[in-house]
Structure formats: C-alpha cells, structure tokens
C-alpha cells in the first residue's frame, strides 16, 4: 500500500475535542478500508497567506494537522466526504513517491556505494586540514591585534 499525507486545515476556533473527533473519524474510515495511520502531527495555529472565504466569514488563520497513512489508492475518492465538513477550511491528500523504508534502503547498491566513499584515509586527510586551519587563525589574530594598536 502506498503512503499518503492527509493535510487538514481547520477553522481556528475549533475546540480540541471536536478536532480529535474529526481525526478519529478519518482514522476509523482508513482502518475500515484496511489502511493504517502511521503518524499524526499538529502544527498548531498557522497564519494563512490569503483569506479563505466560507459561509460564516473569511479566515486568515487555521489549525493545521497532518495524518500520514498507508492506504489503498482509491482513498482519495473515499475522503471526499470531508468536503461537507463544516469545521474544515481545506484538505489535501498527497501521495509519497519513490519512498523506500527499512531493509529496502540497505539492500540497494547505491546505498552501499555511498558508504564506501567514506574511507579511513579521507578521515586522516581531514585531520591534516584542521592543523593547517589553526595556523591561519593565528595569522588572522595577529592582524587584528595590529589594527587595534593603530
């Protein structure tokens, strides 16, 4: 199953109990479709770049939430009931592309090639560079002292 991020922008005056109830409803909907909620993030109240007009006024702030889920590809169509939700200003479902997890990352040839670039000889070369940098610092320090004497 692909990984999706569901971004929810709620009205700023929505209470936490109502927010949790809405998130719970989305979570239950995903789980009933054999999906899994992997992460829930709250970004708190955010300032919007422009006002979002709704029937009860124009909003320049909103509460932002992010639900990360593994779900079936038709989840986008199934979440359209959120369009009728009065507490929401906007919602968006974004699919993660080419994301690799766990063992998949370690088994790739590219990952091994990246790690082999860092050899012990490179580490000792970096230590030699640090010693050279110390000499430059002393020279700069002497120049600063001369300027203050003038």
CATH topology (level 3) name of the largest domain: Alpha-Beta Plaits
Please indicate the percent range of residues in DSSP E strands (runs of 2 or more). Answer: 25-35%
CATH class of the largest domain: Alpha Beta
The parts where pLDDT drops under 50 for at least 5 residues are: none
What number of structural domains do the residues give?
2
Instruction: Briefly note the structural class of the backbone.
Output: alpha+beta
**Termini separation (Å)?**
72 Å
Number of helices: 5
User: In the CATH classification, which architecture of the largest domain applies?
Assistant: 2-Layer Sandwich
Mean pLDDT: 80
The number of E-state strands comes to: 4
What proportion of the residues is helical, as a percent range? 40-55%
User: Given the C-alpha coordinates, what overall shape results?
Assistant: globular
CATH superfamily of the largest domain: Ribosomal protein S6/Translation elongation factor EF1B
């Amino acid at each position: 199953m692909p990984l999706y991020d569901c971004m929810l922008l709620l009205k700023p005056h929505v209470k936490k109990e109502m927010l949790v109830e809405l998130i719970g409803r989305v979570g239950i909907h995903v789980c009933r479709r054999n999906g899994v909620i992997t992460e829930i993030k709250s970004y708190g109240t955010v300032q919007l770049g422009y006002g979002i007009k709704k029937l009860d006024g124009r909003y320049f702030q909103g509460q932002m939430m992010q639900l990360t889920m593994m779900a079936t590809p038709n989840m986008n169509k199934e979440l359209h009931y959120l369009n009728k939700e009065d507490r929401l200003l906007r919602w968006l479902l974004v699919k993660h592309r080419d994301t690799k997890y766990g063992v998949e990352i370690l088994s790739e040839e590219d990952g091994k090639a990246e790690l082999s670039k860092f050899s012990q000889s490179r580490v000792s070369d970096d230590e030699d560079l640090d010693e050279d940098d110390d000499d430059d610092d002393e020279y700069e320090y002497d120049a600063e002292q001369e300027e203050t004497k003038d």
